[in-house]
Amino acid sequence: MHFFSMTFRLGLLIVVVCIALSSCSKLFSPRGSGEIPDTDQTETLLKAHVFHLADTIGERNVYHPGSMERSARYIEQKLEGMGYAVTRQAVHIPPSGEFGAVKDWTAYNLIAIKKGTSPQPKMLIVGAHYDTKVGMDNWHDHGPARPSRTGTPGANDNASGVAALLETARALAATSTLHDVCLVAYANEEPPFYQTPAMGSAVHAKSVSHHSGREKIIGMIALETLGCYSPRVNKKRQSAVVAGLAGLPDRCDYVAFLSTNTGRKLARSCAEEFSALSRFPVRSAVFPYYTRGVSWSDDWGYMKEGIPSFAATDTAFLRCDDYHETSDTAEKLDYPQFAEVVQGLSKLVISLANKP
How open is the CA angle 317-318-320, to the nearest 5 degrees? Predict the structure, then answer.
């Protein structure tokens, strides 16, 4: 997961979040007084996914192809067990000094589609990347890759997103929808592939834009770093300053829907709907998009294609120092809150896919 592109500078950060604060951050308070749904089963399943990906498999990227393939097979097997047909989409990585030791390899997006009942269905895309950041000199670096160094096991970034994707898929499998829901696990979100043609979500965004047509796509939701909701000690991210300027409180009791102008309407309407479906607090903030400037995660490729998109996230490095570190381990996540968020997101996806 990455918030800023390879041309990131702190000055740009401050400017952008100030603009975001002045125009587009909004708190959506949960409505209604219904009972919180029982989260025990969802919590157990989420925990099993995260522990398997982060602890059993560990670091997973194309510099460690065995782990990458084991992760892909795990996701495929879980989706197939729910009744989905899974296809692989090739993500070609050309030989490049930018990518270091990678030599003309291919990674794979994993795609499963929940078919809608409409004779002319539209498509909602929900995705999460399953790779983790390779070792580099610093947590915030975009390169060069240092495969000999230990990279992150990626429990929150982004086994949590993959776990949320799988449990959203489970909820979808148990119901019918009017429109199609395309579920995608992406390769190569992390540096040095971020915002390059070798980024899996950019490959998928281009393919659906060209083959399905933008007018048939409802939008895209990126599930990104969703597991942290307890107070964390932040010593090196300056998170209080950044989050405060963006209108995002420096506390950990909410999920955020973050977008650029391309996804502004979708993110805000989804935040309103989420608040009607879940008692878990949600915030929505919009960041102006500049070329190679600001994006959050896998929503970037869809923005480039003019497809409304946003990231559902716990705000990652604005909240937790374990981001992109070897300390991003499975036992650190807050599973009861995480389960509540995922239940709300599942209800949101089902609702969106059933709108006329």
Answer: 55
CB 333 within 8 A of CB 228: yes
* Gap between the Cα atoms of 269 and 283, Å rounded: 11
Model pLDDT for residues 79-109, shown as the tens digit of each residue = 999 999 999 999 999 887 778 777 778 999 9
Number of residues written out for the chain = 356
Q: Token pair 């009791």 is at which residue?
A: 253
The tally of domains found in the chain comes to: 1
Name the DSSP class of 108. Answer: E
> What are the E-state strand segments in the chain?
26-28, 86-93, 105-114, 123-129, 180-186, 217-224, 255-259, 282-286, 309-313
Q: Within a domain: residue 166?
A: yes
CATH number assigned to the domain comprising residue 159: 3.40.630.10
Radius of gyration of the CA atoms of the chain, in A: 18
Domain-embedded: residue 199: yes
Query: Domain limits at 112?
Result: 10-352
Reported pTM? 0.90
Determine the residue type at 220. Answer: M
Q: Would you say residue 1 lies in a domain? A: no
